[in-house]
Amino acid sequence: MEDNLKRNKFKASAVSSRLILPVVIILATITILTGVVVLNSEIISRYSSLINDSGRIRGGIQRVIKRSLLGMECGSYYSAIDRSIDQIKNIQSYESVIYGSFRDSSIDRIEKDWNTLKGLLNRSVVSQEMIDIGERIWHDSDELVSYVESRTLTAVRLFYVITVVLAFVMFFLLYIIIYARYTLRDKVEYRANFDSLTGLFNRHFFLNHIQREYVVAERTGRTFALLILDIDHFKSINDTHGHSSGDVVLEQFASILKSSIREIDLAARFGGEEFIVFMFAKAPDEAVQFGERLRKKVEQFAFGENISVTVTVGISFYVNGCTFSSMFEKADKALYRGKEQGRNRVILSE
């Protein structure tokens, strides 16, 4: 039983390990996409600042020229325009993994024209050159705003696309988690409770189930029988016809057994060529009759060319107060009495 549990744990580990690589890839993808979203958000924020600074330059130049013509103080506007130009140049030097550097010659022309315009404004003399430079700065600032707005729109679109992809990937990861929790769990539970070759319940499940039935039987007084079935001369079948033929015999025998029991009964492969049946019965004769019907079916079934198969059955019947160990021992002794008497027979324990 301990070996069976270890084997089932190994199977569960093997099955779950198949999901490790896809989950790691998905988590890595989520991490990368999240990083891109954060980076893209930073770029959008910088572009928004750039648009605001370009707008301040465009509006500030108009106010400076107007206030200078009116003989009004313009120092605060000078500082604001200088700051905006410096901030745009700082953003211009920012390297983006997605977009590369933001490079536009407009800001260089704006800075050059602004320095020239400040010199003209300090002379307090209105000239056509001053007006031309002001219009040129306004035009370059407007071009810069349009250019940055187009790049911002691209960044926003990319942000939405990445967000949708990220949501899809996270949904897919959620699906895998649900799959692992339910579908994979069902597979692991099946492997833990069923024999992989015959499809019958295995020894581990049978022993757990029989303990619950004992509790019910002691409480309700319901009676049942335990049947141990052993395929006769199975080693000879393997030696003569090969292990693959032996496996086919086990599968076909299990199919006969499954089709013979009722829904309320339980059949399991107990180990090798040995099988066990738990069946509700009101009297021992009912279990013996079932065993005889099964024995004849096996004897008459065509298992394969030149393969003759028979089965010996040992039966014990539940009486109030007996334990599973004692029932199993009685059925096992009855089975070996049947082997000693020539096999291919059904023996009820004494």
Overview of the molecule:
Helix content is 70%, strand content 10%. It is of the alpha+beta class and 350 residues long. The strands form 2 sheets. A 5-stranded mixed β-sheet has the order 4-5-3-6-7, sandwiched between helices. The chain has a two-stranded antiparallel ribbon with strand order 1-2. The chain is rod-shaped. Residues 1-15 have low confidence and may be disordered.
Tell me the layout of helices and strands.
Elements: H1 2-17, H2 20-69, H3 75-92, E1 95-96, E2 100-101, H4 106-122, H5 128-193, H6 203-220, E3 224-231, H7 234-241, H8 243-260, E4 266-271, E5 274-280, H9 284-300, E6 311-317, H10 324-340, E7 346-348
Parallel strand pairs: 6-7
Antiparallel strand pairs: 1-2, 3-5, 3-6, 4-5
Helix pairs in contact: 1-5, 2-3, 2-5, 3-4, 4-5, 7-8, 8-9
Question: Which features characterize this protein?
Answer:
single chain, 350 residues, alpha+beta, five-stranded mixed sheet, 10 helices, 10% strand, disordered N terminus
Helix share, percent? over 70%
Mean pLDDT: 81
Cα gyration radius (Å): 44 Å
Uncertain parts: 1-15
The ordered H/E elements are HHHEEHHHEHHEEHEHE
The beta-strand count equals: 7
The biggest sheet, with number of strands, parallel, antiparallel or mixed sense and barrel status, is: 5 strands, mixed
Kindly estimate the percentage of residues that lie in beta strands according to DSSP. Answer: 5-15%
Mass-distribution shape: rod-shaped
Cα distance spanning the termini:
28 Å
